[in-house]
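Archive transcription. Copying these from loose printouts into the bound notebook so they stop getting lost. Printout 1 of 2:
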Amino acid sequence: MIDPNATQRLFCFGLGYTAGRLASSLLADGWTVGGTCRTEERQRALKDMGIDALVFDPEQPLADAGAALGGATHLLNSVPPGRDGGSEIEGDPVLAAHKADIVALAPSLVWAGYLSTTGVYGNTDGALVDETAPLNPTSDRSRQRADADAAWQGLFESNALPVHVFRLPGIYGPGRSALDQVRAGRTRRILKRGHMFSRIHVDDIVQTLRASMDRPHPGGVYNVADDEPAPSSDVIAFACELLGMEAPRPIPFAEAAKDMSEMALSFWRDNRRIDNTRIKEDLGVVLLHPTYKDGLRAQLGAGE
């Protein structure tokens, strides 16, 4: 257990949507937080929140990483590899720039986390996937993620860094949900028989990360998903129902795929359901939003 009287400091590479929610939660409990972002505008907003923020460009490492990381008891990397992370560098851009600095922290770190993706499992034709499943990514983006996932696990195996890997499906929450898509008129109800997607509310990611921080198990790998994988068309239909709007007409996948980007097609290539048993049994997580219906209802009820 973390000593509640000790000063805890998180340093996060990539203070985006999810990590930013975690940072806000920790700040409210008296932690100090530092980390990186992509732009000076975001840096100013984070500093206004009380976060020691630095702009990180994968092509140009932090000028004084030792000072930036100094005092960190907890470390999180949420920067995706490759172009998704704003880099042409192969592999994880954080490790490419600062692996030695991170390894040097090992003796003082209580916990380190890496936000990976369930895309590393590839296609299982709808079968349930737990953390013991082989990695079989089907896209370049997911292959890069699998490599980064393995690289962070390697830091535990080779350097005793207290790494925990969290594999995330689609993330939704305030500002990033089917409700927002429906309101903006950016929805299509695409039907592909038997195709399921798992998802997770951002606040359930935050509580899972905090549960792991409170109960570190270096080397641990966790699927972070809710209890109800579902077709995306069902989620859109339910969001429309909540908003009192007529659901868009269903579009067969074969028709919709004609004008999809390669990235969009890649999301439809894999059909799998994610098993979340481990976060419940090992970390004691009780999901705030066990299903997408719970999450969307709560979001609408909060005026979000």
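Printout 2 of 2:
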Amino acid sequence: MTNEPAAVFEAVTKSYGSVRAADGLDLTVRRGETLALLGRNGAGKSTAISMLLGLDTPDSGRISLLGGTPEQAVLAGRIGAMLQEGRAVSRVTVRELVGFVARTYPAPLPVSDALALAGLTALADRRVDRLSGGQAQRVRFAVALAGDPELIVLDEPTSALDVEARAEFWEAMHGYARRGNTVLFSTHYLEEADTAADRIVVLDAGRIVADGTSEELKRAAGGAVVSFDLAGAPSAYLSDLPGVTEVEIRGDRARLRTDDSDGTVRALAARDAIRGLEVAPLALNDVFLSLTRGRAATPETEPVR
């Protein structure tokens, strides 16, 4: 496999009116990795994906995709994509739809292989407009695979799917990734990034605010979470305990983010307040909130995502 990156953003900027969707974006996607883009609504995830696919052009900077321009990679069938928008095609079967799309590429993946990778072999002769939401999403995945792409881009691929359908989709995606292909996906489900991605990039206001594996991001954020049962005891003192930076009360259970878990636990023990004690490293959700908290959100009316 070539050492050339799958995709490179170099000082990329993109604005919509007064909103800067990409603000000097520098990002290299390595071949064979599964990379998750995280960020709140308005962070610039979908804008970055649109520019990568050649659907939008940067105001300045450069994007390289598989050694050429995005347009060249798309036309050659070297990149596949699942975007957020899409509707079922009426009166065609799954096999017919995937076969039709495959014939538009110069070197397509055999239809049977695309169906197998997407977990659709048993549904090949069913009409597309009669599938469940999770099954329809796997059809969109098979269509994205039809050109036998080296890189696939997934923009919020499991939004609106139930837990079972999400699990089935990621099982299909892992089959594609195991072939040595590159995957770039955006998601609002942090647990998906935690379990599915080799690398996580957090965007905020068009800039990268964190880049690394899930464990690296957690270690860089520092601290731990101490939780215990209040058992009806008061909670006003908790913010004054050693190391505590954040207090959250869920029902009768306290959840403390702390930079000194040993000191926090000792102070709780001195108050005889240890009931159902649990000490755990930060979850990716905690890291994400700490990276994006306090930043101005982009208005929903702006064309930036």
